[in-house]
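Entry 14. Ran structure prediction on the chain below.
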Amino acid sequence: MNVRLPDFTLPAPLARLGGRLPQLPPTLALVTALNLALGRLIPREALEALIGKRFVIRVKDAGMTLRFAYGARGFRPVFDTTPPDLTISARARDFLALLMREEDPDTLFFQRRLVMEGDTDLGLLVKNTLDGIELPRITAARLAPSALLVRLRQRLAARGL
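Output, structure tokens:
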């Protein structure tokens, strides 16, 4: 059974709190995931035009602003406030829907639920690169805490732990 992600917007107090929290931990999680995907899911050759570019992912309803750059050695967090080359903004639900392939970036863009600001050519390159990636199928049911615990137990048992 394929369960769709419900429509939600995180409460405004969460965005105010999220904006006051350190942004480094979620940024490190993002750049680590991107770097793990390099060469496996994302061909490095497709990203050559991104070298030296700065990006911001803004999760509006979570109050998160993740700043990072791409270089010859991969993605890395950025600690200053130099204007990015590309900013992508959306609600948490819309980013999750993109990851789960429930929503198409063009649809979200034309519905004004996904906003790209900055270098439009760079935004198009990023979108086309992401569209070409074959991600493993992620469903809402697989993200449920009980499903995550079952998979964790299975992996630990397989390792004899």
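Residues 24-37 form the longest helix (14 residues). Will compare against last week's run tomorrow.
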